[in-house]
């Protein structure tokens, strides 16, 4: 690939010990490290010079592909022009422009944007907003938050409290008080090998009525769900499930939050999952694809009525005592604006939609491979669930992950589920390579 020589000149570090790696088996990795030293379009470059096809868009974030020229130039130019400016009682033009661009992508009155630096921060921001909104309206008794089993909402204390992945919670003691959880929507005995949205399971939304009866709906501030639960292993919502959640929340005056950190920016062939499913929440959290993973950024997009509820009292008073040093960072905003331009100019959301049928067929071609017990897909996302090795959970999927990397393919795994979510610039040849390589690895699996 042109230009890779300069990108791969980075030397391997001579000491791996100091870096405490996130979500990683540190000791295992440091014995046999897998290092990336370059990237362009659909590929990474490994430290040994091999091209590695990115089957996961980094961590669900590099939706437009790697090192895209317009985004690179925007970042370079912005660093030289205005590297940092505060947004506390000051401002600079870019977050205002970006907020307007994002609001224009939204349905109905989702027309205000608050910037954070990650999906985790966006989630904690949305939860705080929900509680503060009800207080501003004179309903301060609405403090309870409802998440969902197997949900992932980042790693802040708010996010892990409403989240439902036990491994993300059990090391950290008590969570936030006043949190409950809906059941997750996946039942393999009724949904295995479904293409797209399962027919079974919409009734599980009615468990929200049970929680309302248990706690009194007037105490509940918000319900937060991922439209498609990604990090837990790609759980697709049953047909009608999200619509039913919306109806129940509206009935009881509860805010509905969609965590679209993964589903935002074209992953389902639309701008956001709210467009794909035709269900409009009260707040949306997003990150990852907002800047194509180039610079950290997150955001909360909220309805006008929520914003307006804070715009009371003396005009010289701060309306929401919340924010981050890097909220609306100039370089992140520049990256985001160039990313939105790239999506639009190259028609990447539409390109994603055009590939969905081919992607689905390729994913389900692995149905009869050894150890495959389920395949799930929606948009340009798929999961291949494997039967775990007896007494060795995650071992089979981890082995597939390593062998795929050795053969030039990056996949993700969680438990014994392999997750795939390529950049939206992928073509049919890339899809063939992803599932061909994974299929060959599975055929050889113990």
From TrEMBL:
Keywords for this protein: Aminotransferase, Pyridoxal phosphate, Pyruvate, Transferase
Entry's Gene Ontology molecular function annotations: adenosylmethionine-8-amino-7-oxononanoate transaminase activity; pyridoxal phosphate binding
Cofactor(s) annotated in UniProt: pyridoxal 5'-phosphate
Record carries keyword Transferase: yes
Protein name according to UniProt: Beta-alanine--pyruvate transaminase
Species whose genome carries this gene: Stella humosa
GO biological process, one term: biotin biosynthetic process
PROSITE patterns, per the entry: AA_TRANSFER_CLASS_3
CDD domains recorded: OAT_like (cd00610)
Similarity comment: family membership: Belongs to the class-III pyridoxal-phosphate-dependent aminotransferase family.
Pfam families registered for this protein in UniProt: Aminotran_3 (PF00202)
């Amino acid at each position: 690939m042109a230009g890779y020589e300069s990108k791969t000149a980075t030397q391997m570090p001579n000491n791996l010990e100091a870096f405490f790696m996130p979500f990683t088996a540190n000791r295992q990795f440091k014995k046999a490290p897998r290092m990336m030293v370059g990237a362009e379009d659909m590929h990474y470059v490994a430290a040994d010079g091999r091209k590695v096809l990115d089957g996961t868009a980094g961590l669900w974030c590099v939706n437009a592909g790697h090192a895209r020229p317009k985004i690179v130039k925007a970042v370079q130019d912005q660093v030289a022009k205005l590297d940092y400016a505060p947004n506390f009682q000051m401002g600079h033009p870019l977050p205002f422009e970006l907020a307007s661009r994002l609001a224009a992508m939204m349905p109905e009155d989702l027309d205000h944007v608050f910037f954070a630096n990650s999906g985790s921060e966006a989630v904690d921001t949305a939860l705080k907003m929900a509680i503060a909104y009800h207080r501003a309206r004179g309903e301060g008794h609405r403090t309870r938050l409802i998440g969902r089993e197997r949900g992932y909402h980042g790693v802040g204390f708010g996010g892990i409290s409403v989240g439902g992945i036990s491994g993300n919670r059990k090391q950290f003691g008590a969570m936030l008080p006043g949190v409950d959880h809906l059941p997750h929507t996946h039942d393999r005995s009724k949904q295995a090998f479904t293409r797209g949205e399962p027919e079974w399971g919409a009734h599980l939304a009615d468990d929200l009525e049970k929680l309302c009866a248990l706690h009194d709906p007037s105490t509940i501030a918000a319900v937060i769900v991922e439209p498609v639960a990604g990090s837990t292993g790609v759980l697709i919502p049953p047909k009608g499930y999200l619509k039913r959640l919306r109806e129940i929340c509206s009935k009881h005056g509860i805010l509905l939050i969609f965590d679209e950190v993964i589903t935002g920016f074209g992953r389902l062939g639309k701008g956001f999952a709210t467009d794909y499913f035709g269900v409009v929440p009260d707040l949306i959290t997003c990150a990852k694809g907002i800047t194509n993973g180039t610079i950290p950024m997150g955001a909360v997009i909220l309805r006008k009525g929520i914003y307006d509820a804070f715009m009371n009292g003396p005009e010289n008073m701060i309306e929401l005592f919340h924010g981050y040093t890097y909220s609306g960072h100039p370089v992140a905003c520049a990256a985001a604006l160039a990313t939105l331009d790239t999506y639009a100019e190259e028609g990447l959301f539409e390109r994603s939609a055009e590939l969905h049928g081919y992607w689905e067929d390729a994913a389900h071609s692995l149905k009869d491979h050894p150890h495959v017990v389920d395949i799930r897909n929606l948009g340009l996302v798929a999961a291949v669930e494997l039967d775990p090795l007896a007494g060795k959970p995650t071992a089979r999927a981890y082995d597939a992950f390593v062998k795929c990397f050795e053969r030039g393919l990056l996949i993700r795994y969680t438990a014994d589920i392999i997750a795939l979510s390529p950049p939206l610039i992928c073509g049919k040849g890339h899809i063939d390579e992803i599932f061909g390589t994974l299929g060959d690895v599975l055929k050889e699996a113990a």
